[in-house]
Batch of 2 targets.
Target 1
Amino acid sequence: MTPPEVNLKRPRVLISVEDLERRITELAAEIDRDYAGSEPILCIGVLKGSVFFMVDLLKQVQTPLQIGFFQTSSYGSSTTAGEIRIRKDVDISVRDRDVLLIEDIVDTGYTLRTIMALLEFRGARSVKLCTMLDKVAAREVEVPIHYTGFQIDNVFVVGYGLDLDDHFRNLPYIGVYEGDVE
């Protein structure tokens, strides 16, 4: 049953299907260029939002790779920003591996900074971040982003993996949600 507070009106298109496809093709080419001749890269998607982007991106990457997943959640509002709980840890060793971390959106930066530091602590040879969306205006801590799909304004977006209470993930485009967000 749909919670009454979620307005399921279609969000306004911000990034079209065609623009997503074009940019993902470009990102795949950049990744192939940067990892040419390397050992298989370990591509780690941050669940759940990155799945649509990750699948479409990695179908076009020609460089040998392996896939893993990582899922986190924040501890809650009463704790320090950046504290996260690991809900699903990557099940492939990162030691001495080139890791490409794939995320749907970089917002404040706290979660990504923590994940990247953890991967480095575990002995990854390199950790690069690929994000579909970069919301620069929301950034509170610096995070090195190596591959960016699109920079967006500080708006609430849904679709193409991004959600509001698990709604809208399956939209084929990225849209601006114009209802109330708590």
Target 2
Amino acid sequence: MTELTPSVLLTLGTALGKRPVNWQRPECGLSATERWVVQFDDGTSVFVKAATDPATTDWLVNERHALELVGSRFGPDIIAWLEDDFPILITEDLSAGYWPAGTGETRWRDGDMAAVMDTLAQLRIVPGDDRLNRLPEPPLVWNDLLLNPVLADSGLCSSQWLARYGADILAAEQSPLGSATSLVHGDVRSDNLCLYPNGQVRFVDWSHAGIGHPYHDLVALLPTLRLEGGPRPSTILSDQVCLIVRSAGANITRALSDDCGPDWLRAVLLRLAAINLEWVSDILELAPPTGADHA
């Protein structure tokens, strides 16, 4: 039985004047966006993202605008943009790069993490664009966390530790946040980046990009890197106190919520929460959190 070519690929082939000869769905992405790696009869290949509803349409339009700003320095080149019933974004196929999370198990090589952080340092000086939305500031949640016994009950710290240092954390949360005018990827993590032999780092999935704090991406990434064998976050960044404390509060709140997902995800989120709390303790020069069972 002959396999039928998916309709989105027929549209793609007609627009590019090429015949798809091989296609596969990559194991990436959690949204309803349709994704394909497509090879053509001339030996070239592309990566395809097709919107499937109004929400994914908005994300794809946002990704297009972000990629037009960063180009191939930080992301894949745009090959084409097709206005169909729902739009289709065709970009450079980055399959040839090294993907730390591309084997089902995250594997960072020597120098990879440093290269990613160097690239983020270059990205944070790229100004935003009024085609992108301004990202909301991290919320003020520490007062609620300190009043809720679930934090101490979680094993992340003791009630004595919270009573002793809660005022310090609240004061840090209220400190100046700083300007938020940089282009932000919005979802930097090991499965959204690849590395090339020349040291270049390329980020994919810019659907949540926006204008935000220049250190937004690094603050979001460092706890995950720590979980994957990377450095203690405070050894990389310690001077963005308000952003770190607010982001940590949001991550801890998520880990302690009743609807954070299955048990395996809750365990991961609690480990990340412990790393975030340790980071707050380090930069505020507090005693280590006691009872951090998830570190």
